[in-house]
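Q: Convert this sequence to structure tokens.
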Amino acid sequence: MKKITFLAIFCLFLINDVFSITLEEAIKRGLEVSYPLKQQKEIVKSFEYQYTSSIDPYLPKANMQSGYTRYLYGSPSQTRTSGIDSIENDVYSATGSLSLRIFDGGLRSAKRKGAESSLEREKEKIESVKTDVIYSIKTAFFTALGKKMIVEKKKEAYEITKKIVDLTKAKYDVGVAKKSDILQAEVRLTSARIELFESEKEFEKALEDLNSLLLFKPDENLIVEGDLSVPTQQGNLDSLTDRALKTRPDVNYQLKEIERLNMVYNEKKSEWYPKIDVELQQSRIDKSFAPKNRQDTFGLTLTYSIFDGVGRYYNLKASASELSAAKFRLEEIKRTVKLEIAKAYKDFEKSLENTRLYRELLKEAETNFEQAYGEYKVGKGDILSLLQSEKDLSKAKENLVTSLYQLNNAMAYLEKVAYITGY
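A:
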């Protein structure tokens, strides 16, 4: 019989892939397969390429141009090429130039620093997405683990109720219990079976949430492993708030955005300065396909727009207003951070106290059931009191497990808003 059971279990493992996973393994896999995280990493790559390309304005520009002109209605009046008169209908030209901008009022520097700030900003967003992914996996894992433990408690309740039914039938057989006592016990047994079935379905739904986050296939059976222990407090409210204001990705993201907008302001300001370019050029114009008449020139050009409308002024004002708005946005983010941590901290304290109280309630329910069961067993108690004490015990066990996974979820949220992560 043992060999048959072993073979049946072995065949089950062959038919369906079964994965036992801990919290650390779930987080590791989640970070590897997360689509939002992969998406943000690709966005960071895009900004890295943009930052690399921002070096171009500092580099010299080399250009080459060649052309052919044919005068269809006779020769031109006279084309002078390097001191030689030509009355040919065909003219070939070739020009090569090397130019470099040596002053632009800070435009190039502002664009490059702005690109760098944009890159750093998107890197901070990676950390923000990563924090969200870890939080989602933690809450899904703790909920699934809690639902799994509730199923175990419901099985215990079912077995205890079944034991009560058997005891009541035995007492009925010897004439010390009524038929109605058996019916009442069987009603409770059916109710316990229904509760067990419902808890199993709730566990399956919780597993689906975790399964979806970890991208397991539908035919892969996931088993969560671990204990729902009471987490340790990470620090007081002030220390958590100070830490978050210095390290949270959304705060740093906004700081980088302010840096970027500062550079945008400098870009607009550079339009009020002249532009200075140097250029070395060689030109060839002749009647042959490979022109030989050569002319070398060197140029220093200073360009300044005296009047081009009111755009420069109002673009600068608009950029300044956008920068001010970003600074106000930073203060609003900091206010929200403080509020989130304060509320998360209070929720954690409430969950911690609930766990303590439910643990005490469970002890009282266990004592009450043991007393009621003992009295009923020797014929002193009644079936209704026993069934009610068993029901209270079952509920107390469920409430304690629920409070434990909610406590761990509350800690996971506190770690998220305070940006406490070891991954």
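The chain has a mean pLDDT of 89.
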